[in-house]
Amino acid sequence: MSTATGLLTIDLEAVRANWRTVCQQLPQRPAAVIKADAYGLGAEPVGNCLYRSGCREFFFATLEEALAGRSYLPDDAQLYILGGARPGEENECLNARLIPVLYSLEGVDRWAQACRRADVQASSVIKIDTGMTRLGLSLQDWERLRNDPERLRACHPRVVMSHLACADEWAHPMNREQQQCFSRVASQARVLLPGVRCSLANSSGIFLGSDWHFELARPGASLYGFDPHFGRAPKMQPVVRLSLPVLQWRELQGDAAIGYGATARLSTERRLAVVAGGYADGLNRTIGRERGLGYLGETQVSVVGRISMDTTIFDVTHTRPASPPESNWIQVLNDRLTVAEVSHRIGALGYEVLTSLAGRYRRVYRPERSQ
Ligand SMILES: *Cc1c(COP(=O)(O)O)cnc(C)c1O
Questions:
Q1: What is the percentage of the chain residues whose pLDDT exceeds 70?
Q2: 62 near 81, Cβ under 8 Å?
């Protein structure tokens, strides 16, 4: 038997279907964001599935992630680094044909200098801060670059981008403010940089409408199956299923304290299931401490007491006893308990639920159907 704490099934057919749904919203083919190991789902299998589905541009967070991507993605894939090239990383980027996102004047000049030294015209992305105050050139710095087109062109920008702060809140006024600000930047950039593409929308930005699309969208979450507007956007197909194996049934006769801290007490006859998988597997974040739900067969069951490091206890009183324990699993993410639903219920972000799946799970990829 496997020693894993659970079985994480990743449905690549659903990833492909979601890619198609996203593409249908857009006038031009988007890039895919596969940073943080494709949000914990496995950047290599997920990235290759997206490549087979027609994706050619991929965003990573770090140099290491993008270097790895260069080894497993086909040669004509364009790989971007959202975190940019830090001082000293420029040559590695150039050698592996990685495209850094530049978010400071210093970074712009450093990339230009590296290109000059290597005698190449290697592309970059310029990122402008339109209101989020995270990475990005300030509008003043952009103004400075605009007034010095040679300095701007010396870093060979092929994309000018920005990022939305509140796109997952449909009606937030910042969405329009950032869109208008970026529209101005985009018009200025198109004059100075013929052929440049502009890029604003992440998943939820795409579903705000065509004003937010520009030439290159950057979806991540929607490809991995969570509906960024919880019901207002097209339904994404769930991609992950997480099943935890039952290690032991417990039949309670009367009063009992359950788990560390004795935070739960049960006084009637109950039947419990102890499953493999605990907070060391991210379950506190995935299913939400003591509010966790699961499915044993068709029956919904809930977590009792605290989640331990390696185990979690569910109340399975209302299920039909099925022995032995080893042949039973409790599903904590599935088509009914989707990432969107779970995150909504426990007050977390879908992103946190997904990236918490980095535990000791055995990963199984359900392949996409051939074309
Ligand atoms: C993570 C990220 C994305 C993808 O966002 P989703 O909401 O997952 O679609 C796009 N752009 C930037 C700059 C990001 O950091």
A1: 98
A2: yes
